[in-house]
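dumping this here so i dont lose it
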């Protein structure tokens, strides 16, 4: 009984020993399960906040949006981590070093370790997407020669460009040597499938909303087009009428230009005639002006005018037969004067028939 007991005690001790040895494995498995669950939740949360990029929505290509929704192909899909590592990489004084890593699978886990030989180093991480730049780790100086820089984060939205930046611009005299190891672990297959469906649902809602808005805008655009076509036809008709009117006005303008020119010439000639007289009247005026000035003077002396003497025809008087009493120049003044009565009687007897 004691041996059995001993054996039983031995078995119990062995069993207890086995349990204590298996306990760390259970803890590591539990931690791994917790990590996978956290990654799944973070991936689902990232997929829930997914929205199609502006370039994919504005692109004329059907594949632009579909490639963003589909993600990586599952035909050759592998969950094997991608490792980027380098040792003693120099960072020049007053310089910097950038390590770009392109991530295409949403839900990928990125883990990094950075060390610097003998000195501190500036270090930071950014994620560059189409929507903008997100700061993953703010850039600052780390004493990486004393303690390694480590970290782990999940990449949600893809495609994404991770930029690991080593900064030595603050150092004037010392070159830095850095060693880094970056591991990118793709998501589990089930997370990829779930992410596809989640992105597809969100993209479908976005496509429906944009389709409804586009159809509404298209209807308004077609109505506006019809209205503009009618207005253009009316304007073309009006333009044709205006062109016809322009031709008529142009012809009238030409006629009126000639008429104005004619009337101005006529106006000038009439004013000249009224001011200077007619040319055919000038010779008579010149003849009157060129008469003998001596005759004019003699006429003035004897009091003879150039006006004609008006004779009254009603009087039958022959002025040539009237006696004129005058004293001849050659007659002697002492000669006897005949009786004027006798002379008149003789003259009357002479003209009697």
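and the seq i came up w/
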């Amino acid at each position: 009984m004691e041996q059995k007991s001993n054996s039983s005690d031995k078995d119990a001790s062995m069993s207890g020993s086995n349990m204590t040895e298996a306990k760390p494995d259970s803890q590591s498995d539990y931690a791994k399960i917790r990590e996978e669950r956290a990654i799944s939740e973070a991936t689902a949360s990232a997929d829930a906040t997914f929205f199609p990029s502006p370039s994919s929505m504005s692109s004329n290509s059907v594949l632009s949006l579909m490639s963003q929704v589909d993600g990586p192909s599952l035909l050759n899909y592998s969950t094997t981590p991608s490792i980027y590592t380098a040792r003693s990489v120099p960072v020049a004084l007053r310089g910097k070093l950038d390590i770009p890593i392109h991530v295409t699978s949403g839900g990928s886990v990125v883990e990094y370790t950075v060390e610097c030989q003998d000195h501190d180093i500036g270090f930071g991480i950014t994620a560059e997407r189409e929507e903008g730049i997100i700061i993953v780790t703010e850039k600052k100086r780390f004493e990486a020669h004393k303690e390694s820089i480590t970290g782990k984060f999940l990449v949600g939205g893809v495609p994404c460009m991770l930029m690991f930046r080593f900064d030595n611009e603050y150092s004037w005299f010392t070159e830095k040597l850095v060693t880094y190891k970056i591991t990118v672990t793709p998501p589990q297959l089930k997370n990829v499938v779930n992410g596809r469906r989640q992105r597809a649902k969100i993209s479908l809602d976005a496509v429906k909303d944009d389709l409804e808005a586009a159809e509404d805008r298209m209807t308004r655009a077609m109505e506006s087009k019809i209205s503009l076509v009618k207005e253009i036809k009316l304007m073309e008709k009006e333009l044709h009428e205006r062109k016809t009117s322009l031709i008529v006005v142009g012809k009238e303008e030409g006629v009126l230009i000639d008429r104005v020119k004619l009337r101005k010439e006529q106006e000038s000639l009439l004013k000249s005639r009224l001011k200077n007289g007619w040319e055919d009247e000038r010779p008579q005026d010149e003849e009157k002006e060129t008469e003998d000035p001596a005759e004019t003077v003699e006429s003035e002396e004897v009091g003879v005018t150039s006006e004609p003497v008006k004779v009254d025809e009603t009087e039958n008087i022959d002025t040539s037969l009237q006696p004129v009493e005058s004293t001849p120049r050659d007659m002697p003044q002492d000669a006897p004067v005949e009786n004027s009565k006798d002379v008149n009687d003789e003259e009357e007897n002479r003209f009697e028939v």
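The longest helix spans residues 189-276.
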